[in-house]
Each structure stands twice: as C-alpha cells, then as structure tokens.
Amino acid sequence: MKTLRDLHQEIIEREQKSGRVFLEEPFPYQMDCLLHPEKYEKKERMTAVCDMEALAENEDLAAVAGELADEEKKVYALIAPAFMGQFGEKVAPGQIRSALKAAGFAGMVEVAVFADILTLKEALEFDKHVVSKSDFQLTSCCCPVWIAMIRGIYGELVPHMPGAVSPMIAAGRAVKKIYPGAVTVFVGPCLAKKKEAKEPDIADAVDYVLTFQEIKELFDAASIAPREMEEDEKVHSSRAGRIYARTGGVSEAVQKTVMQLHPDREIMVHPVQADGVKACRQMIEDIRAGKIEANFFEGMACQGGCVGGPKALLANEEGRELVNRYGDEALYQTPLENPYVIELIEKLGFYTVEDFLEKSDILTRDFGGHA
Predict the structure, then answer these.
(1) Contacts (Cβ under 8 Å, ≥6 apart) of 224
(2) Separation between Cα atoms, residue 77 and residue 46, nearest integer Å
(3) pTM value?
(4) Which CATH number applies to 4-363?
(5) Under 8 Å CB-to-CB from 18, ≥6 apart: which residues?
(6) Residue ranges of the domains in the chain?
(7) Counting beta carbons within 10 angstroms of the beta carbon of residue 95, is it exposed (0 to 12), middle (13 to 18) or buried (19 or more)?
(8) Could you report the per-residue pLDDT of 162-196, keeping only the tens digit for each?
(9) Closest to 109 in 3D by CA, of 45, 33, 180, 47
(10) Largest Cα–Cα distance in the chain?
C-alpha cells in the first residue's frame, strides 16, 4: 500500500521537474508549534483586564470568557479561513494569534489546514467514485445550510455526497485527540456553525462557536488591539485550504488536487458553484433535471461564500480579495505538496492512502439520516 508520505514525495518530485522550487526544510519549528503549543504559549490571562459585565449579555461569549478564566483549562481558538482582514486589513495572522493568546487562549489553529486535509479526502473520493461521465459528486465540506438542504429536501442526492465532516469539525476533533480535555472554540463569520456544532453525531468536536463580531467584543472588553500586537507567525495551510472561504474555493482546491494525483486522468473535475440559498436550490433542480454538464457541485448559502457570512466584519468583496491574496502568499498550492498536512495526518494515526480514505472516522460522518 502506498503511504501518504510516498505520495507527497512523488508530487514534490514531479513539481520540481516542471520547474517548481520548494524549501528543503520549510520552517520545521512550525508544525511543532501546532502540535506542541504549550512550548510557545504566553501566560497572560485576559481576566485581569476584561470587563466581564460588557460580555454578560452574550451567553456564548460569557461562557467562553469563563473558560478562559480557568487556569486549569487549555482553550484553543479554531479560526475560520475567512479571517483575513476581519480585524483590520493590515493585521497579520500572527498578530491575531498573539491577540488571542493575550486573551487567554492556549493557541490559535488555522482551520485552513484542516480544509487542506478535507480537500485531500474529497479528491481521493472523487478519484475513487467518479469513473464515468454520468458520475458526479456534491462537495460536503463547508456549508451547514447546503448540507441541511440536501439531507432534508433532496435526500435522493445524499449518496453522491462523501461523508466528510466540515473543516471546523475536523479541527475540533483533531485538537481534542492530540490534547484530551482541551476546550475548542471555533471563530468565524457564520451563525449556522453554532447549530452545526450541536448536531448529535458531531457534537464531540467543538465546545463553543463565536463569530468574528463576538471575538471583537472580547478583544474590546480586554482592551486588546490586534494591530498593536507583535506578530506570532506560524503558517501551516496551502492555497487550497485558504481559499475555502470564498465561493469556488472548494472546487478549485479539489480540482487542482485531483489533477496532481493523476495528471492524465480521463475524467477531470468539472465544477459548478451556486451562491446563495435560492441559487443552491436552482442548481440542485438542474442536477435532477440533467441540465448541467458538470461532475462536482459546490453550494454556498451566503453570497460570496463564507466571506459573506452574516457576522463577518467586512463586505464580502473585500473579504474575497484578502482571502485570495492570502492564498497567493501560500508556500504550497495543494495539500499534496504541504508537508504539514502529511505530518498532521500521521499524527492522527493514518499512514497509507487506503487507511486515510476508508478508516479515518475522525473525518467522516453518516449523511444517511435527515438534518
């Protein structure tokens, strides 16, 4: 059986032959920071400066503040790929990480690296199941509204949807597996994620969901200004994981990853996307009527994708631009190139392609029931 590390090495060697240049030992300390943040964490706690009364009216925010105040708890912020620019256009990811640590979090994990992992899983699923022109796949990773729509209204399409959890759930489960007893807090622009985190089959992953607006309230109450923080930079995600935040990002990520897996594959990924609930419904109706010549369908309930979420702090056009810019800055284009992805998957106990595809329970769920 081929190992994931062997596959990674094959891709790197193929890309190098085409002229790509990769760092031979890319910042080896960075994965250590992800897997062992206790070596690097700051000890300041926000409770000394936080105005608890300002947070009391928000139940979720007050509960997280209480967890942060407990010296015995390790609380991790899982920040959505849409985070770029949400706390100021010139605020770097490392400054947000420092701000969260100053607020009492043990560390910040970019959910984009788990979007990388889910991209690899969906690409392998596509490679396995889409073998004729009549086959197609509904992406299952990101949007809980899209998933609920398919499960609740268009149940006959569920078999075309790989049983993958969202990157949020994957991140929460991974942190809890690596650090038993950890408290996980997802941070993003989406209100539907609050409901997703409580769904019975995946409620083990994320303890709290806060929006970008709520985190800003926390920063304000604790007198923390991210733009004034020193940059605590640790980069783990590829372009593929970073662009999940905008419409078309999942499609592009899976498309490029499948192309890397098998450059000569007869049937490549031919994607189509829908923006907004109405457009999602129309796309599904067109699938059922056989009106679309595509084999990979991506639905996003919010205009522009996650960057257009109801609790984003930026207009979706600006958010999309900053997400694309962050994607362009990535050292790696796909999860197959990303050594951090391979190391993290191994840390979770999966070494071969077959095991990752067939036995990775931490990354899967059963869509057979209704939402």
Answers:
(1) 46, 99, 102, 103, 218
(2) 14
(3) 0.91
(4) 3.40.950.10
(5) none
(6) 4-363
(7) buried
(8) 888 999 999 999 999 999 999 999 999 999 999 99
(9) 33
(10) 62
